[in-house]
Specification:
This protein is α/β, with parallel strands linked by helices. It contains 19 helices and ten strands. It has helices spanning about 1-30, 35-40, 60-80, 135-145, 165-175, 190-200, 205-210, 230-245, 265-270, 285-300, 305-315, 320-335, 340-360, 360-370, 375-380, 385-400, 405-415, 420-435, 435-450; strands spanning about 45-50, 50-55, 85-90, 100, 110, 155, 185, 215-220, 250-255, 275-280. The strands form three sheets. It has a five-stranded parallel sheet with strand order 7-8-9-6-10, sandwiched between helices. A hairpin with a 7-residue loop joins strand 4 and strand 5. The longest helix is centred in the N-terminal third of the chain and has 27 residues, at about 1-30. The protein starts with a helix and ends with a helix.
C-alpha cells in the first residue's frame, strides 16, 4: 500500500514537472524561433530537484549551443514559471554514455550515440490522408523490415507537413521491436556543428566511428548541408559506409533533393539510390481530421462546424492548424467559455483577417507571376501560350481556394473574363494536382510565399 502511494506521488511529481517545463517552452516560443527550440531545446532531458531545474544535453555540441545562445532566456522562463528562487543547471547526459564496439575496428570503443527520439511521435498518432499515404506506407515498411528493399528512404516536402513526425515514428517502431538496435535521430545542423567541433579538437576519427556504429541513421533537413563542402564530404563517406553495411538510412528534405542548390551531384545521386517520396500539404478533409485529432490530444472536443471553419480558413500546414487550436484553447481556458463556432470566429478573427489580407487576388497574381518568371500583364492578359496558361489557371485556382471572392469577381480580376473560365481553370487544376507532384510542390511554395 505504501509502495503504491509512493509510486502515485512520484508519478504526480513527474507529471507536474513535465507540465511546468511545457509552460516554459511556450514562454520561450515568444523570443526564440520555433525551429531552434525544436532542434536545441526540446531534446534536452529535464530534471527538477529542490529549487533547481537541470537540463541534460546529449553531447557537448548541444550543450555549448544552449549555453551560448539560449541559457539566459531559459533562466528567465524557469524563474517566471517555477519561481524566482529557482536555479538552472546544464550538463551532459551522463546516463547515456555507454560503449559500443566499432565494426570496422574491434579493438576500439566509442561513445554510444543517443537515439534523441521523441517518444510522443509514433505511427499510431500520425494522421493519414491522401497527401501522405505513400510516405506513411514507405516509413512503416522501412521500420518493420530489417533489410528494407529501398534504402535510403528520403521524404521531402515543405515545413509542417509531418516529415519529422515520421522520422521519430520510424525510430520508435524499430526500438519497440528490437531494443538492441542502435538508432540515432539528429538534425543536420547538429551533425555539422558536431563535425566542426571534432575538426577543431582533432577528434575526427572518433566522430567517424561514432556515426558508423549506428544501425539506423535518421537525418532531418538534409538541405542544411548545402554549401558546406567539408560536411558533405564527411557525410558522403558515412553514407557509403552505412549503405554498404545494409544499415537503414532515412533522410528528410524541404524539396526534391536534386533541386537543392549547393548539394554536390554525387551526394544527390546517393540520395536517389533508394526511394524518394513526397509529402504534400493536407487537403481539406484531412485538415478537418487533423484538427479534431489534435484537439483530442490537447484535451478537448472540437465540434464539426468549428473544425470545418478553421480548415477552410487555414490551408498551409499542420503547425498553422496547431497554432490556431492552441490560441483557441488558451482563451477558452482563461474565460471558461465553450468552444463553439461563434466563439471561434471571435477569438481567431484577427488571425484569419491577417491571413486574408495577405492572401488577396492581387497578391496571388503577383506571387504566381514572380514564381513562374512571367510578366504580370501576361498572366492577366489574353496570351494562350502554355507557359502562361498553366500559371494563370493555378493563380485562379488559388484565388478561389484562398480568398472569399466569387467566380465572377475572380474572373473580373483576371482581365474581365467570363466566370466560366475560372470554373474551368479550377476543375483543370483539381485534375492536375491529383496527377502531378511537381504542380503540388509549385502550389505549396506559392502558398508559403503568400503566408510567410
Amino acid at each position: 500500500m505504501i509502495y503504491a502511494i509512493l509510486l502515485l506521488y512520484l508519478s504526480a511529481c513527474l507529471w507536474l514537472c513535465i507540465l511546468m517545463w511545457d509552460r516554459c517552452l511556450k514562454r520561450l516560443e515568444a523570443e526564440i524561433p520555433e525551429n531552434d527550440i525544436n532542434i536545441w531545446i526540446k531534446p534536452l532531458d529535464v530534471v527538477e530537484a529542490g529549487n533547481q531545474v537541470s537540463l541534460y544535453a546529449t553531447n557537448d555540441v548541444v550543450l555549448d549551443k544552449v549555453n551560448a545562445l539560449y541559457l539566459k532566456s531559459i533562466v528567465a522562463a524557469v524563474r517566471e514559471i517555477y519561481g524566482a528562487d529557482y536555479q538552472v543547471k546544464t550538463a551532459i547526459q551522463k546516463r547515456q554514455v555507454e560503449t559500443a564496439i566499432d565494426i570496422s575496428s574491434p579493438q576500439k570503443k566509442i561513445t554510444k550515440v543517443p537515439s534523441n527520439l521523441d517518444k510522443r511521435f509514433t505511427f499510431d498518432n500520425f494522421i493519414e490522408g491522401r497527401s501522405n499515404t505513400i510516405a506513411l506506407a514507405a516509413a512503416m515498411q522501412t521500420a518493420q523490415t530489417a533489410n528494407p528493399e529501398y534504402n535510403p528512404l528520403l521524404l521531402y516536402g515543405s515545413t509542417g507537413l509531418g516529415k519529422t513526425h515520421l522520422l521519430h515514428s520510424i525510430g520508435n517502431e524499430i526500438l519497440k521491436t528490437n531494443p538492441d538496435e542502435m538508432v540515432c535521430y539528429l538534425h543536420s545542423e547538429i551533425y555539422v556543428n558536431e563535425m566542426v567541433k571534432a575538426l577543431q579538437q582533432k577528434k575526427m576519427e572518433a566522430f567517424k566511428r561514432k556515426y558508423r556504429s549506428v544501425t539506423t541513421l535518421l537525418i532531418d533537413d538534409i538541405q542544411f548541408f548545402a554549401g558546406k563542402e567539408r560536411s558533405q564530404e564527411e557525410f558522403f563517406h558515412n553514407f557509403n559506409y552505412l549503405h554498404d553495411g545494409q544499415k537503414r538510412i532515412i533522410i528528410t528534405c524541404d524539396r526534391y533533393p536534386k533541386k537543392v542548390s549547393g548539394l554536390e551531384s554525387r551526394l544527390k545521386s546517393r540520395l536517389g539510390w533508394g526511394v524518394v517520396v513526397p509529402i504534400d500539404p493536407p487537403d481539406y478533409e484531412t485538415r478537418v481530421i487533423i484538427l479534431k485529432e489534435k484537439a483530442k490530444q490537447f484535451g478537448f472536443s472540437l465540434e464539426d462546424d468549428v473544425a470545418f471553419y478553421i480548415a477552410k480558413q487555414l490551408n498551409s500546414n499542420i503547425r498553422e492548424l496547431e497554432g490556431a487550436l492552441n490560441t483557441l484553447k488558451a482563451n477558452a481556458d482563461f474565460t471558461g467559455h465553450k468552444i463553439d463556432l461563434a466563439y471561434t470566429k471571435q477569438i481567431l478573427k484577427e488571425l484569419f483577417k491577417v491571413n486574408h489580407q495577405i492572401v488577396s487576388v492581387e497578391n496571388i497574381q503577383k506571387t504566381t507571376a514572380q514564381y513562374y518568371n512571367v510578366k504580370l500583364s501576361e498572366l492577366i492578359g489574353k496570351s494562350r501560350k502554355r507557359s502562361i496558361v498553366r500559371p494563370r489557371q493555378l493563380a485562379m485556382f488559388l484565388a478561389k481556394e484562398l480568398t472569399d471572392n466569387s467566380y465572377p469577381e475572380i474572373a473580373e480580376a483576371f482581365g474581365g473574363r467570363d466566370h466560366t473560365t475560372v470554373i474551368h481553370a479550377c476543375k483543370k487544376m483539381d485534375e492536375l494536382l491529383n496527377e502531378s507532384h511537381d504542380l503540388n510542390e509549385d502550389k505549396q511554395k506559392i502558398v508559403n510565399k503568400l503566408t510567410e
